[in-house]
Specification:
globular, 225 residues, Glutaredoxin, alpha+beta, single chain
Amino acid sequence: MYLHLKMRLRQREPATFNPNMSLINCYLASLHALHSFQRKILTLAPMKHLRYFGFILSTLLLPCIGLAQNSVDFELQSATDASHFTLSKVEDNFVALHFLLKTDCPRCLRHTNDFITRSKELPNVRQIFLKPDSDQDIASWAEKLILSEEASYPIYRDPEAGLAKLFDIPDGYHFHGQVVHFPAFVLLDTDGKEIFRYVGKDNADRFSFDQLVAKMEELSDAKSR
């Protein structure tokens, strides 16, 4: 029952940063903000504050840098069996991190069941399901999953939502009398770097398996160009 985080990278989110935006859109939003600031500061004090532009630019681009380079290595322990997952040991596969909600969550069950039963459609994507509950609560919740022996999947524990915090999954969602992080999906490439994320606005807002299929086709098409 542990979580090893070998690198801690925290992304700062200015008001204009959307956790679902692409890397390109992130850069464009940051550069637009810089251009607006530049026009204002040159009007007020020409040349006097130019030495601060480097610092300002790097601050504005921090979310984009984190989005492109937040490769981490971590190890997770399953709450439903004796298995472990270590990111650095995954070879030639994408990794899909499913940050499920704390407490009993019927929608999380449906979401997890859908991805598990259809996982063979995307054999190059490892599906990793995480919950920040206790081992006992996760095991009890997992008993409600509709699984066959050949389709069994471990459900990993994310103690105190440590991995969710590392990936800057926003919290503040009120659910079943508790304040938890929002439901989220993060896709890592074969190098362990984040290339896509989807953060739901509420429990019903989830990234579906069909959307993941479309995203993988999009990535494959982009790579072949």
